[in-house]
C-alpha cells in the first residue's frame, strides 16, 4: 500500500486536458442503497436533508468509468413552529414516500433521520435538472422513490 505524499502531489506537472463537465447518469429506474451519510443544511430558514443514493449497476459504472454511481435527493423538510417535523396534509410528502419505500412509515413506530443511513435497497427514478445559470449543464436528481416490491 502506498503512502500519500502531499508535497509530491501538489508539485506534480500535468499536460493533459481535463473534463469540464460531468456525464449525467441516464434517465432511468435503478436499484439503489442509501449512503450511510446524511447532510443537514438550512435553506431560507428551513431544514434540508440531502440523501445520497448509491446505484447498483455494474455495467453502468463501467460505462461511465466511475467507482460509485451516486445521485442526491434533497428533502426540504416542513417543520412546526417548535422546529419539530411537521405531519399532516401536504407536509413532508417526499420524506413520507422515502420512508414508505423503506418500510419505515408506520404510525406508532418511532423513527428518526438516522434510520435512513445505509437503508435500502429501493427503486429510484433518476432525472435531470438544468443549472439555473447555464442550462447546458445538467445535474442528476432523484425524481421518485419506491419500494422493491413496487411495480
Report what the structure shows.
It is a single chain. The protein has 151 residues and is of the alpha+beta class. It has a single domain, classed as OB fold (Dihydrolipoamide Acetyltransferase, E2P), CATH 2.40.50. It has 3 helices and 5 strands. The protein has helices at residues 6-11, 58-64, 93-101, and strands at residues 28-43, 46-55, 69-76, 122-130, 138-146. It has a 5-stranded antiparallel β-sheet. The protein is globular, with a radius of gyration of 19 Å. The protein starts with 5 loop residues before the first helix and ends in a 5-residue tail after the last strand. The mean pLDDT is 94.
Chain-wise SSE layout:
Blueprint: H1 6-11, E1 28-43, E2 46-55, H2 58-64, E3 69-76, H3 93-101, E4 122-130, E5 138-146
Antiparallel strand pairs: 1-2, 1-4, 2-3, 4-5
Amino acid at each position: 500500500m502506498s503512502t500519500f505524499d502531499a508535497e509530491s502531489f501538489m508539485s506534480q506537472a500535468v499536460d493533459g486536458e481535463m473534463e469540464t463537465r460531468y456525464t449525467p447518469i441516464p434517465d432511468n429506474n435503478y436499484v439503489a442503497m442509501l449512503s450511510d451519510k446524511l447532510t443537514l443544511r438550512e435553506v431560507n430558514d428551513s431544514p434540508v436533508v440531502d440523501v445520497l443514493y448509491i446505484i447498483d449497476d455494474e455495467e453502468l459504472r463501467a460505462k461511465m468509468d466511475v467507482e460509485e454511481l451516486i445521485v442526491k435527493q434533497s428533502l426540504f423538510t416542513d417543520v412546526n413552529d417548535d422546529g419539530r417535523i411537521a405531519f399532516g396534509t401536504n407536509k413532508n410528502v417526499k420524506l413520507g414516500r422515502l420512508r414508505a419505500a423503506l418500510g419505515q412509515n408506520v404510525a406508532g413506530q418511532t423513527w428518526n433521520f438516522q434510520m435512513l443511513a445505509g437503508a435500502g435497497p429501493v427503486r429510484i427514478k433518476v432525472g435531470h435538472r438544468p443549472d439555473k445559470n447555464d442550462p447546458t449543464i445538467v445535474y442528476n436528481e432523484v425524481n421518485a422513490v419506491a419500494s422493491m416490491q413496487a411495480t
